[in-house]
């Protein structure tokens, strides 16, 4: 069955429930209604929205007040990880009748806060790579967006939630939070209501940028993460950006993976997994890594703690944490060039 349809707004062909010209217009019309108070982050999100040709490639700035029950679940050298409920959830589609985005509804997410970044390019690099891995095949932890801790002003990535998330994204640059995204990510434009339709409540991860001196490091991670948002789903999806109202830290909104990471899974289940299952997981993992390499991304921190899944038994494996990743041929000190 073909995925192509006729857009009820412009009467042009589109596929995967996403009309790029119309949805780009809806995003652009909303540019003046939000800001991260950082020009580089604003431009990064705006460019991602205008270039989105699938709902899973959408990145958002998520106001921190759209998360509830935020709690610290992990802390590492690069930052902290928080669990939270994203009240709205990620965007699903545009609601033509109500002229607003429909969303998937309440989501559990992880907020990855960047606590100790010296160079903001490092953060931007991870964000760029993570977004690039957002694909329809759910091969990696989804990256939903960016937010900011209102108290510390640290930026945070909003990520797909994984149950054992305390082992995800540990480092000196940020922290990871679990949360429910109340509205959920954007799905499509609701022509009738003139707003975005959304997938509703989502579990997400918020990656907070806590300790960076150069904002380009943050922008570099965001840029790379966004680039990984592809139809192959090789990595955790990047949904948007939010801000912690207490710390004022920015946070990436990322897909949450309930199955945890490969290291912990193997500690418990290694003797119960047959060789066929091991080889199948290795095969899927190799495909995901190949997809990331084809995007000219070098991960540089690839280990079992950064390999996540909804359910390892179903081979739903995704790659996460692009904080140390680099884009081939890109100057990490100026990722915009």
Q: Can you describe this structure?
A:
One of its GO terms (molecular function) is protein serine/threonine kinase activity. This is Protein kinase domain-containing protein. InterPro entries: Kinase-like_dom_sf, Prot_kinase_dom, Ser-Thr/Tyr_kinase_cat_dom, Ser/Thr_Kinases-Pseudokinases. The chain is 23% helix and 34% strand. It has 337 residues and is α+β, with helices and mostly antiparallel strands. It has one domain. Strands 3, 4, 5, 7, 8, 9, 10, 11, 13, 14 and 15 form an 11-stranded mixed β-sheet that branches. Strands 1-2 form a two-stranded antiparallel ribbon. A two-stranded parallel ribbon has the order 6-12. Strand 17 and strand 18 form a beta hairpin. Helix 2 packs parallel to helix 4. The protein is globular and about 55 Å long. About 2% of the residues have low confidence.
Helix content: 10-25%
Summarize the main sheet: 11 strands, mixed
Category from helices, strands and their pairing: alpha+beta
Radius of gyration: 18 Å
**Runs with pLDDT <50, length 5+?**
164-171
**Total tally of structural domains:** 1
Note the beta-strand portion: 25-35%
Count of helical regions? 6
Give the termini distance in whole angstroms: 41 Å
GO molecular function: ATP binding; protein serine/threonine kinase activity
Protein name: Protein kinase domain-containing protein
InterPro entries: Kinase-like_dom_sf, Prot_kinase_dom, Ser-Thr/Tyr_kinase_cat_dom, Ser/Thr_Kinases-Pseudokinases
Organism: Diversispora epigaea
Secondary structure blueprint with pairings:
Layout: E1 4-6, E2 13-15, H1 20-29, H2 39-51, E3 60-61, E4 67-75, E5 78-86, E6 91-103, E7 106-114, H3 120-132, E8 143-148, E9 155-160, E10 171-172, E11 174-181, E12 186-198, E13 201-209, H4 215-227, E14 238-243, E15 250-255, H5 262-269, H6 275-294, E16 297-298, E17 307-309, E18 317-319, E19 326-327
Parallel strand pairs: 3-8, 3-14, 5-11, 6-12, 7-13
Antiparallel strand pairs: 1-2, 4-5, 4-11, 5-7, 5-10, 5-13, 7-15, 8-15, 9-13, 9-14, 11-13, 13-15, 14-15, 16-19, 17-18
């Amino acid at each position: 069955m073909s995925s192509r349809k006729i857009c009820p707004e412009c009467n042009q062909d589109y596929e995967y429930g996403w009309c790029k010209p119309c949805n780009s217009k809806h995003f652009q019309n909303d540019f003046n209604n939000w800001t991260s108070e950082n020009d580089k982050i604003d431009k990064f999100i705006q460019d991602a929205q205008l270039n989105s040709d699938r709902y899973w490639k959408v990145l958002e700035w998520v106001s921190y007040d759209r998360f509830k029950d935020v709690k610290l679940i992990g802390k590492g050298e690069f930052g902290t990880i928080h669990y939270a409920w994203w009240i709205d959830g990620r965007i699903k589609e545009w609601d033509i009748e109500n002229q607003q985005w429909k969303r998937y509804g309440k989501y559990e997410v992880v907020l990855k806060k960047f606590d100790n970044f010296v160079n903001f390019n490092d953060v931007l690099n991870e964000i760029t790579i993570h977004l690039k891995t957002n694909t329809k095949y759910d091969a990696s932890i989804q990256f939903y967006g960016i937010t900011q801790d209102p108290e510390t002003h640290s930026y945070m990535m909003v990520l797909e939630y994984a149950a054992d998330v305390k082992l995800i994204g540990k480092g000196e640059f940020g922290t990871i939070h679990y949360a429910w995204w109340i509205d959920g990510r954007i799905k499509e434009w609701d022509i009738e209501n003139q707003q975005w339709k959304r997938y509703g409540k989502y579990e997400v991860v918020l990656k907070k940028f806590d300790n960076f001196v150069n904002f380009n490091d943050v922008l570099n991670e965001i840029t790379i993460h966004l680039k990984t948002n592809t139809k192959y789903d090789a990595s955790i999806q990047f949904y948007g950006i939010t801000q912690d109202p207490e710390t004022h830290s920015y946070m990436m909104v990322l897909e949450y993976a309930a199955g945890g990471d490969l290291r912990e899974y193997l500690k418990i289940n290694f003797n119960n997994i047959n060789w066929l299952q091991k080889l199948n997981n290795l095969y899927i993992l190799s495909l995901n890594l190949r997809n990331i390499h084809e995007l000219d991304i070098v991960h540089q921190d690839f280990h079992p703690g950064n390999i996540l899944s909804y359910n390892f038994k179903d081979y739903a494996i995704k790659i996460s944490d692009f904080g140390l990743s680099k884009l081939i041929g890109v100057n990490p000190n100026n990722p915009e060039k």
